[in-house]
Design goal:
The protein has helices at 3-16, 18-25, 28-37, 62-73, 96-110, 126-134, 141-150, 165-172, 189-200, 204-221, 232-237, 239-252, 265-271, 276-289, 314-336, 351-356; strands at 51-55, 158-161, 181-184, 227-229, 295-299, 302-305. By secondary structure, it is α/β, with parallel strands linked by helices. Strands 2-1-3-4 form a four-stranded parallel sheet, with helices on both faces. A two-stranded antiparallel ribbon has the order 5-6. The relative contact order is 0.14. The protein binds 2-acetamido-2-deoxy-beta-D-glucopyranose (NAG). Keywords: Signal. InterPro entries: P-loop_NTPase. It comes from Chaetoceros tenuissimus.
Length: 360
């Protein structure tokens, strides 16, 4: 039997026919290792929804949304959270053990210490991750820590956020006793790629490629979940009403228990500093949506503008432009909503770019 089939049967059978199945499928070492993993599986389609996951590419405003939801409504994050840093002074709202576990999941398959920007991160396979966790092949102390927190009724309604979840989201599902809802957000790919260059010195083409990979993974991995979608622009334009809409839809559409608090203008203003942040927000909006440049392509009524290339070599300039256009077309499709369709065709990403982009 193929490993994936075995895994699916395993998950199904844990709830249906444990004893018989174990003695049949798991023999000797495999069974012992499995017992060693010592983590509960909750694999039922009928799980209630006691919280939600925020999915979005790095530098896409997921911290701002999460901060507004946590501080504005009282959704619970568990602890400890990552410390605020210069690239997110208001905090990340990321549960440290969840980030650690995501790093373990990714490291196991990509062999890079913090693999969030690995060019081949799209090769991550959640079924392998689940199997590695069950077989005791990877360290799951963080997984146990997070699930103990989130599976506790006192933690509801919870919010779990880490951009790595775009990639690893499905690896968590069997270990949660609830079926989480999803808040998905995105930001203009060029803004994200520029931000990644400033923070991490990633070449523009690498940032654009990661933008495609993360957004595709987030949408595909959450296709079967109850999902509320938004965007960085929608939040910046009207933080109060957009965050209120998100919370209302989480409750009314996705059955997330109502949060304990009520969003107040004061919370939004204290979180998004009314003068400084507003100006920044307006500037960001202008950067992202106002046409200052030539239109280089009209894609389904959506204008795509020229951008200053970072490459001097004609060959690399062309590869970068191809990547930029692929990302911007997806951005157009997110704005119109068609990128959420089940039959949406995601572009191929060239192998060549994949292997060469790490070289600046
Ligand atoms: C999770 O880990 C944190 C920090 O190491 C610790 O404070 C907390 O008690 C742990 N929680 C559980 C449920 O194990």
């Amino acid at each position: 039997m193929r490993p994936i089939v075995v895994l699916k049967k395993t998950l199904l059978c844990v709830t249906l026919c444990c004893a018989a199945y174990f003695s049949f499928e798991f023999k000797g070492d495999t069974f012992r290792q499995r017992s060693l993993a010592n983590i509960e599986i909750h694999d039922s389609e009928l799980k209630p929804t006691s919280g939600f996951v925020v999915l979005g590419m790095h530098r896409s405003g997921t911290s701002m949304i999460s901060g507004l939801l946590v501080e504005g409504f009282g959704y619970k994050t568990g602890g400890p959270l990552l410390e605020p840093a210069s690239d997110n002074e208001k905090g990340f709202f990321e549960l440290s053990p969840a980030v650690n576990q995501n790093q373990v999941f990714l490291y196991d398959q990509l062999q890079l210490r913090d693999a969030w920007n690995h060019p081949n991160i799209d090769s991550f396979n959640h079924e392998i991750a689940i199997r590695s966790a069950l077989n005791g092949e990877i360290d799951i102390k963080n997984l146990r820590n997070v699930t103990e927190q989130l599976n506790d009724a006192k933690s509801s309604p919870w919010l779990l956020k880490d951009p790595r979840l775009c990639i690893t989201f499905q690896s968590w599902l069997p270990f949660l006793n609830s079926k989480p809802a999803v808040v998905f957000t995105y930001r203009n790919p060029l803004s994200v790629a520029k931000s990644l260059n400033i923070r991490d010195r990633l070449p523009l083409i690498h940032g654009l490629r990661l933008w495609i990979v993360y957004n595709k993974a987030a949408i595909q991995n959450s296709a079967h979940m109850c999902r509320v979608t938004t965007s960085n622009n929608a939040i910046l334009q009207d933080p109060f009403n957009e965050v209120l809409r998100i919370s209302n839809e989480l409750t009314s559409k996705c059955n997330v228990p109502p949060p304990p608090g009520q969003l107040s203008v004061e919370t939004v203003d204290s979180f998004i500093d009314p003068t400084l942040q507003h100006n920044q927000a307006v500037r960001k909006l202008q950067e992202e949506s106002l046409p200052q440049k030539q239109v280089i392509e009209v894609y389904n009524d959506c204008d795509i503008y020229e951008y200053p290339s970072w490459q001097t070599d004609a060959y690399w300039k062309q590869l970068e432009m191809d990547m930029y256009l692929k990302a911007m077309r997806i951005h157009c499709d997110l704005e119109s909503g068609v990128a959420y369709n089940a039959d949406y065709v995601w572009p191929n990403l060239q192998e060549k770019v994949k292997t060469n982009i790490a070289v600046e």
